Amino acid sequence: MALPTYQKALLVQEKFGDFTLVDLPVPKPGKDEVLVKIQSSALNPVDWMIQKLGILIKDYPALLGFDIAGDVVGLGEGVTQVEIGDKVFTQGVMGNNNQSGFQQYAIVDVHTLAKIPANLTYDDASTISVGIAAPYIGLYNASPYGLGLVPPLGPENQGKYSGTPILIFGGSTVVGHFAIQLAKLSGFAPIITTASPKHESSLKALGATHVLDRSGPVTEAQVQAITRTSIKYIFDGVSTPETQKQGFEILAPGGKQVVVLHPEAFWEEGKKEDKAAIHVLGGKALPHHYELIKELFRNLTGLLEKGEIRPHNVEVLPNGLNGVVGGLRTAEEGKVSYVKLVVRPQETS
Q1: Cα distance between residue 13 and residue 90, in whole Å
Q2: Residue 286: is it exposed, middle or buried by C-beta count within 10 angstroms (0-12/13-18/19+)?
Q3: Are residues 274 and 145 in the same domain?
Q4: Where does a domain end: 263, 279, 295?
Q5: If residue 327 lies in a helix (H) or strand (E), which one and from where to where?
Q6: What is the pTM of this model?
Q7: For the residues of 171-238, what is the DSSP string, one character each?
Q8: Which value, to the nearest 10 degrees, does the dihedral of the CA atoms of residues 38, 39, 41, 42 take?
């Protein structure tokens, strides 16, 4: 089937500007790239933050959307890893319009995509890439970009941290959902997380051993009632001043807390106690992440086939790309709980 010349895309025309549905040329893949017909694109908090707060992106017009799943419909020079018709998923690239998800076709680096296994839908697959990147980088990238732990890829590397406790703030967040599963693969125990009590059974099914109510502060006494072993590793998928401070007070000397927002000022004082915050940015295109992310994507299909990694819960929004704006407003208002909102760009009218 011949490819179209133009496609529908959702642009932010200028900094702080509104989303606008436009027609753009369908891009062509270059060396080591493929063209993907996007079937599902998931929304993330960073999408509304960029549009409303004017952060992270300098060049406009800008295309957002960083969780992509679809079909390979074009091959660039040198591509042998996939074929036309393969179903794949990937993470979009912030600041690169051709590689973003709020459009009907996107260019994808062949080294940072994974095939969708038969047990997953496009919608399922679109919930994975952004959510797993931050905890994977935060836990397994070398210092100063991560904790420098051994990635749990392959049976020989799973269970390396058996008997070591970990605390994960925000188990029902997108990043927390995947952090719990990675911690389980690495053998951490107990895996203590925070969430609304209504999500306890779901999070325990992923691998959490204890779920503390997120409505109250997490204290050292609560953690010590679960384990007498000192906490040296924390993944903070919330990273408000409150959760960062709670983690700081729980951490043992020499401990590290991975945060997804900017570290608070008190971490400077924490150096006196040999405590540190590691600010993780989950973008695959950052040079210090790229090789690690390539390794992850080479292994993701197998992990998903075996059920060792599970996608996030899905809520599909109607009307294709026209559903993005309403979905992002819902997310901004805090009305999204333990689900990823997904649009289907091919349904755009």
Answers
A1: 25
A2: middle
A3: yes
A4: 279
A5: helix 324-332
A6: 0.95
A7: TTSHHHHHHHHHHHHHT-SSEEEEE-GGGHHHHHHHT-SEEEETTS---HHHHHHH-SS-EEEEEESS
A8: -160
Q: For Cα atoms 273, 190, 124, give the angle at the middle one, nearest 5 degrees.
A: 110
pLDDT above 90: residue 234: yes
Q: Are 270 and 276 in contact (CB under 8 A)?
A: yes
The kind and range of the H/E element at 242 are helix 241-250
Q: Same domain, yes or no, for 247 and 172?
A: yes
DSSP designation for 103? B
- Concatenated DSSP letters of 264-289: PTHHHHHGGGT-EEEE----TTSHHH
Mean pLDDT of 126-145: 96
Check whether residue 155 and residue 53 sit in a common domain.
no
List beta partners, residue 197: none
The pLDDT value given to residue 220: 96
pLDDT tens per residue across span 311-324? 999 999 999 999 99
Domain range holding 136?
Answer: 132-279
How many domains, in total, are found in the chain?
A: 2
What is the structure's pLDDT at 230? 97
Is the residue at 306 inside a domain? no
> Cα separation of 165 and 147, whole Å?
14
CATH code of the domain containing 219: 3.40.50.720
Shared domain check, 210 and 93: no
Q: Does residue 215 share a domain with residue 164?
A: yes
- Does a structural domain hold residue 115? yes
End-to-end CA distance of the chain: give it in Å, rounded: 21
**Is-contact 219 133, C-beta < 8 A?**
no
When pLDDT is cut at 50, 70 and 90, the band that residue 212 belongs to is: very high
Kind and range of the H or E run holding 123? helix 122-125
> 337 and 273 in one domain?
no
Determine how β-strand 231-236 pairs with β-strand 210-213.
Answer: unpaired
* CA-to-CA separations, 47 to 107, 287, 291, 337, in angstroms, rounded: 19, 22, 25, 17
Quick one: how far is CA 152 from the chain centroid? 17
What 3-state class would DSSP assign to 31? coil
> Are 123 and 88 in the same domain?
yes
